[in-house]
Amino acid sequence: MGTSIARLVRSLTAGVYVVGVADGEVPNAFTAAFVMQVSFDPLLLALSINPDHSSYALLKRSGAFSINVLKKGQLELAAHFGGPASANKLASMEWTPGRMGVPLLPQCLAWFECQLTAEYPAGDHVLILGKVMDGRLLDAKADPLTYSDTGALDGAAALFPASFDD
Fold it and tell me: Other CB atoms closer than 10 Å to residue 53's CB: what's the count?
C-alpha cells in the first residue's frame, strides 16, 4: 500500500532542484523537490529540509541558500547531488559562488539566490523561507525536470505509510 501512496504523492507537480549552501569556505549542495514560491511581494521561496542533513547546519550558519532549477535530461545531476553525503559533491562540478557565497550551477535552467528569513517545524523536516535577492534564467528554451521524471531515484516510496490513518 505504501507504493500506492507514493504514486499518489508523485501526482503533485513539483520540480527538481539542487539547493546550494555555504558557510565561508565550506560549500555543499543537495537535490530537493520540496520547493515552491510562497509570495510575490516580497518574492519568497520555501524549501523543506531534514534538520539532520549536513547542509542544514551550513544554511543556518550562513543565512543563505541557492535554488538551482534542473532541466529535463539532467537526471544524472539530480542523482549526483541526491546521493549520500560525500566529502565535496561540488568538487567535480562547474559552479560559481553567488554574491552571498552559495553555489550557483551554470549548467542549470535557472538559479535563485535567497536570504533566509524564517523557518518552521514541518514534521520530519524544517520549512525554510527565503527572500529572493538575485536570480538568472540561463536556458529559456529548456523544460524543467519534474519529480515524476525521476522515478524511484530518491527511494521515497519506502518512507510513506502503508495506509492513511482513519
Answer: 18
Q: Using the predicted structure, report yes or no on whether residue 149 has a pLDDT greater than 90.
A: no
Residues 133-145: tens digit of each pLDDT: 999 999 999 999 9
For residue 76, tell me if it sits in a domain.
Answer: yes
* pTM of this structure: 0.86
Region of poorest pLDDT, from 14-18, 98-102, 128-132: 14-18
C-alpha grid cell for residue 90?
561540488
Contact call for residues 67 and 112 (beta carbons, < 8 A): yes
Domain count within the chain: 1
Domain that holds residue 30: 14-153
For residue 166, being part of any structural domain is answered with no
CATH number at residue 42: 2.30.110.10
Report d(CA 151, CA 112) in Å as an integer: 25
Q: Is 160 exposed, middle or buried (0-12, 13-18, 19+ CB in 10 A)?
A: middle
Task: Decide if 97 is inside a domain.
Answer: yes
Q: Is the pLDDT of residue 3 over 60?
A: no
Of 70, 92, 83, give the one whose Cα is nearest residue 30: 83
